């Protein structure tokens, strides 16, 4: 991770230190994307120097805090075992999902596999939400998403994870003690989740 430390990408440097360059895979990928990493670092330094003299402190802080997540970076962070512990979610500032992956090994691997296919959507959404969060103090991030609900439904929905996510806590507790109402309720929920999500968002 010495190149990341040099480019002031401290988080990546630490991650490379403890994973030996993501087991060599991330290191090899960096060999191809090094020019873009250097260009990005130099551009960021130039812009930050300009806004330090031109913008008030609050605007400067918002600019510095809002860093766009690159799709390639998200895929590198999803390389096992880091991805199974939610590394890509931490990168996108999805702390709750990161913690969930940390304690469930990527939803027993199923959530991690799903993320490999929906990564472009996750990155786009994360960048949009982080930008809105910086621009508006009224930004509401409590809304529920259909694809999140389905990722939680399989395989851990039998313990009610999707119900907890949708704010249906009594149903979540019921599923824990009945294993998804003996599996039948869990199967039925596959068809009912869209209506659950719609109902949950109306309450927000």
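Q: What amino acid sequence fits the structure above?
A:
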């Amino acid at each position: 991770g010495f190149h990341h430390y040099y480019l002031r990408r401290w988080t990546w440097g630490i991650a490379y230190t403890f994973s030996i360059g993501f087991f060599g895979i991330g290191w090899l990928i960096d060999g191809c994307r090094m020019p873009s990493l250097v260009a990005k670092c130099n551009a960021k330094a130039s812009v930050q120097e300009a806004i330090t003299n031109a913008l008030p402190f609050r605007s400067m802080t918002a600019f510095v805090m809002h860093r766009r997540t690159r799709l390639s970076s998200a895929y590198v962070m999803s390389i096992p075992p880091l991805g199974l512990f939610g590394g890509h979610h931490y990168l996108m500032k999805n702390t709750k999902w990161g913690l969930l992956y940390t304690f469930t090994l990527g939803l027993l691997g199923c959530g991690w596999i799903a993320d490999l296919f929906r990564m472009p959507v996750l990155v786009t959404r994360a960048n949009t939400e982080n930008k809105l969060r910086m621009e508006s103090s009224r930004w509401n991030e409590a809304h529920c998403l259909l694809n999140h609900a389905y990722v939680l439904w399989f395989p851990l929905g039998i313990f009610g994870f999707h119900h907890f996510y949708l704010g249906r806590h009594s149903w979540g507790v019921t599923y824990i003690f009945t294993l998804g109402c003996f599996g039948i309720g869990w199967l039925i929920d596959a068809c009912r989740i869209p209506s659950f999500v719609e109902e949950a968002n109306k309450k927000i």
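Q: And what stands out in the fold?
A: The CA atoms of residues 71 and 123 lie 6 Å apart.
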